[in-house]
Amino acid sequence: MKIFIAGATGRVGEELTKNLVKQGHFVYAGARHEENITKSEDVEPVHLDMHGSIDEIAETLNDAEAVYFVAGSRGKDLLQTDLFGAVKLMQAVEQKGIKRYIHLSSLFALQPEKWGTALTDYNIAKFFSDNWLIDKTSLDYTILQPGSLLETPGSGNITTDVTGKTENSIEDVALVLAGLLKQDNTIKKIILMGNGDTPIAEALKTI
Question: Is 122 a catalytic residue?
């Protein structure tokens, strides 16, 4: 399958690209600094400007059959990238007639009563982008809401029964994102993700 990743140079995006290539997919690696992506027979670097118009973003999608949004400004451009950029990408995906869309969000993004004081502006951006995806599109979406991201080795085990604060290795988040592509049972679902004891493949099958 040909897959477009928005945010391919990010911490999650780099791991996701590796995982999708291992699964045999071709990746259009979209990023603002696409020159930092190594071109190969399986990976095509693509310039992606989240400040661009819907039409401009749509042109970058090429002939992709599925799209991931894992881009993030790490707090530096929340409105333009994390919120409005995400919405414009959704609109561009629909304009191109692509159906499958996998969206990286944050834990409890749709439950403001569970937010702490940390990362509130980020959660607000995710709250509105998640709601737009659910209410304003007809995409075959999956929303993944992991806990705090850690640059630690992945365990390959997770839980989707999350009731409080949790953490996730970036490696595990990328593995889950890659696994969602082949799990049609996750379409139109919001998946909360935390550290756990269930192997990722098994956890996704039981969503």
Answer: yes
- Contact indicator for 6, 46 with CB cutoff of 8 Å: no
What's the half-sphere exposure (Cβ side, CA atoms, 13 Å) at 100?
A: 20
- Candidate list 28, 68, 101, 122, residue with the active-site label: 122
Share of the chain above pLDDT 90, in %: 95
CB 92 within 8 A of CB 130: no
Quick one: which H or E segment has residue 122? Answer: helix 120-136
**Beta carbons of 121 and 140 less than 8 angstroms apart:** no
Which residues of the chain form beta strands (DSSP E)? 2-6, 26-31, 43-47, 66-69, 100-104, 140-146, 148-150, 157-159, 167-169, 189-195, 198-199
pLDDT in tens, 126-175: 999 999 999 999 999 999 999 999 999 999 999 999 999 999 999 999 99
User: How many CB atoms are located within 10 Å of the residue 145 CB?
Assistant: 22
